[in-house]
Amino acid sequence: MENKKKSFRMPHTYIIIFGVILFAALLTVFIPLGKYETKEITYMQNGTEKTKTVLDPDSFQYVLDENGNKVTSVAPLFGTEDFGRQGILNYVFEGMTVGNKSGTAVGIIAFILVVGGAFGIVLRTGAVESGIMRVIAMTNGREILLIPLLITLFSLGGAIFGMGEEAIPFVMILVPMFIAMGYDAIVGIMCSYVATQIGFGTSWQNPFSLAVAQGISGIPVMSGAWFRIPMWIFFTGLTIVFTMRYAVKIKKNPKLSVAYESDEEYRKEFSQKDNEMPPFTLGHKLVLLTIAACIVWTIWGVVTQGYYIPEIASQFFVMGLVSGIIGVVFHLNDMKLNDIATSFDRGAADLLGAAICVGMAQGIIIILGGTSATDGTVLNTILHSISQGMQNFPPVISAWLMYIFQSVFNFFVVSGSGQAALTMPIMAPLADLVGVERQVAVVAFQLGDAFTNFIVPTSGCLLGALAGAKLDWGKWAKFQIKFQAVLFVFASATVILGVLIGLS
């Protein structure tokens, strides 16, 4: 009998998150609770006065008992807020019910399920498949040129209006297209979700993170564009080069892809139709036109009306409903009225795992006490301790440590504006103490906040994108860690350059 070589198998995302939950619970044993006071700050953005509640960096204090001893709050094994405190084994339900429809777990979970259902209807019509085959026919061997085009467009979306969750529907379209072209799901994710985060992190006008961070730091909002626009060009170009090199390698040998097994379902669908071009009728064209109209509507809503998760989800639901009606009227794929409902159900079910992961990940924050600056939490103590430790280094090292800190902190607080509200009131005055310009501290925040969104399993947007691509987080991480290392090197160099040139 031959001895089969055992290879390491990445644990399921659920297992990884549960491991982090246990680690967070362990931290509560040793780290005392700390809290801050808050204050209101105002800043100008596009001629409009904005107000933000942020923590006061000089107000930190440990929670003390009646004897003056620091208090720890060990996470119980079981229990909820109604019964003492959220426990370790309550993390799934408690995490899934955090927040409201505008964000955090509840909003993101609902968004993922609605978008998944809407695209379930769209895919049932067969219009996307027919459109993909037409695109492949038109590119005629030049399909690789789609990579720089798409990465540039999605990166601009992230840079200009903070595109993030909006990328999930595009993943569902681009992944099967690239697989049909001989690439893999990873190329589709790189050209959509990853590209948006590259733009998000190097933006010169992002209203959701850059504007908030600069406003809190007390520097002109949207300033420093002369540095950030070249930064955006460089990192977008770097993403294009990395993705194209990877795509060429996968085209030559698809089995080198970590997504080879999960892509098999798509390959089977397309291989069955190698010898025939699917029909491309008026009905198919109308469905694709509906998708395009929804995209334009979404961009208009986000840019001019301030639409966010609730509105965007409803926009895509309308897209799915209209597409379903077109499918029934034109008998696309023999669609019947009931198929609209069953397709919505099936599409939502495909993304259910991602939705559950979002709730599980939020459970990590619950175990650590939450993200409120005024409540006694482990997270506040960690934030204070790290900021104190940074004061003993020269400017270049301190700025670099700021970038590392923001990268790690993004694991716990994925929201760009939320992370800015918690960290920048501390990082901005800290920058003054260590001889670093506040603009550099903002750059460190931008890069750290965005670039780790590619890999942290606590990002609902990432998990939604991976679910849309039918790709497990572990397999994605196996690929992404290489790109993460490349980004880390160049982001570190960017922050250091900012210090050396005195970016202000």
Chain-wise SSE layout:
Blueprint: H1 13-30, E1 34-35, E2 38-45, E3 48-55, E4 61-62, H2 91-96, H3 104-125, H4 127-139, H5 146-161, H6 167-180, H7 185-201, H8 210-217, H9 225-252, H10 264-271, H11 282-305, H12 309-329, H13 337-350, H14 352-367, H15 378-389, H16 395-409, H17 416-434, H18 438-451, H19 460-468, H20 473-500
Antiparallel strand pairs: 1-4, 2-3
Helix pairs in contact: 1-14, 3-12, 3-13, 3-14, 3-19, 4-6, 4-11, 5-7, 5-9, 6-7, 6-19, 7-9, 7-18, 8-17, 8-18, 11-12, 12-13, 14-19, 16-17, 16-18, 16-20, 17-18, 18-20
Could you name the key traits of this structure?
two-stranded antiparallel sheet; 504 residues; mainly alpha
- State the low-pLDDT regions, or none: 1-5
Strand neighbour order, sheet with most strands: 1-4
Distance between the termini: 68 Å
Mean pLDDT rating: 87
Give the helix proportion (percent range).
55-70%
Dominant shape: globular
Whole-number tally of structural domains: 2
Rg estimate, integer Å: 24 Å
Tell me about the biggest sheet? Answer: 2 strands, antiparallel
Q: Which band does the percent of strand residues land in?
A: under 5%
Backbone structural class: mainly alpha
Q: What pattern of helices and strands is seen along the backbone?
A: HEEEEHHHHHHHHHHHHHHHHHHH
How many beta strands in the DSSP annotation?
4
- State the helix count: 20
Structure description:
This protein is mainly α and 504 residues long. The chain folds into two domains: 13-39 and 51-62 and 368-500, no CATH class; 104-358, no CATH class. Helix content is 64%, strand content 4%. The chain is globular. The model is unreliable at 1-5 (pLDDT under 50).
